[in-house]
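ESCALATION

Customer reports they have been waiting on this structure for their group meeting. Please prioritize. Original submission:
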Amino acid sequence: MRKVPALVFFLCACGQSGGGANNAGAAAEGPAPDQVTVQTATLTGLYEGAGTPPGQLCITERGGTARFGLVTRANGQPGCSGAGTAVREGNVLRLTMNGDSACTIAARIENGRVTFPANLPAGCAYYCAPGAGAGGALFNKTGGTRADALRARDIVGDPLCA
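Update from on-call: job pushed to the front of the queue and completed.
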């Protein structure tokens, strides 16, 4: 009897990932090992955008009130930052800045993804560095707990949601 080298067996077993009837239920089995499922039932958590460092949106809920902190970055440079209250109405997330200029962002929220509209109210420019804007920003929920939200940092590295 001829022995099959272990490496050949291993390579054959790894080759089973192609399409076909054997993989029909793979998507229903759950996320891939490198993907993490984050709770989306509540607003609380950390949402991050693309880039290095990424833009961040943190939301914490307490006693029926949701508070948020926001920082966007463009090519590693400061973009926009602010904090205030968050209210969810269906698929709309209203983020109202606390500060000297009126700014309420009516973002879309679905499946843990927050998408800002392309054009924000004029008052929102007050919260941005010259030439920067947050229109069209996209944040994916990367953590669903208060502890996750507290990891967010502002432009100078201070906690974004305290």
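Sent to customer with the following note: The chain is about 10% helix and 35% strand.
Escalation resolved.
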